[in-house]
Model the fold of this input.
Amino acid sequence: MKSAIFPGSFDPVTNGHLDVIKRASRLFDKLIVSVAINESKHSMFTMDERQFLLKESCSNAGVNNVEVVCFDGLLVDALKAFKATAVVRGLRALSDFEFEFQMALMNRELDEACETIFLMPSPEYSFTSSRMIKEIAKFNGNISAFVPPVVIKALMEKITHKQ
Ligand code: PNS
Done:
């Protein structure tokens, strides 16, 4: 049984992430979607909230061979702990490439068994990012094309509670 790990901040999950999840879930027997504590980013959603939104979004999209977990530490250690064969990352545009290339090579330097597979989401998601979606939502813009309904609800609740 071949498993892959799809790590990310998922703050929150977008339709672009879901597109990559669907593609990867067709390539592997099991996909472990790993929500990372990213020290360098100030998250809007807690780990539990991000995990809940991912679980709901995957189940609403009918993706069943996905497990949503949290991880704190090195990705190469998570890869071993979850017995995954590869890391999956989405590549939206050339601008993602430099960081992703550097991260893939660094991970392989840390563990030579760590292979990264890049999947391109559908072009309609090539400009979607969690950061932009949070900003649009804050100013009451329409985000319905970019995130699942459960995320729209969660974003609205967050923003209303902050005001
Ligand atoms: O969604 P993001 O924020 O682009 O995801 C980045 C993430 C979480 C995949 C990356 O920061 C990561 O793997 N963090 C775990 C710590 C680690 O292993 N760092 C060394 C990799 S260069």
User: Anything to note?
Assistant: The pocket of 4'-phosphopantetheine is lined by residues 7-9, 36, 38, 74-75, 103, 106-107 (CB under 6 Å). The helical segments are 15-27, 47-60, 75-81, 94-110, 130-138, 149-162.
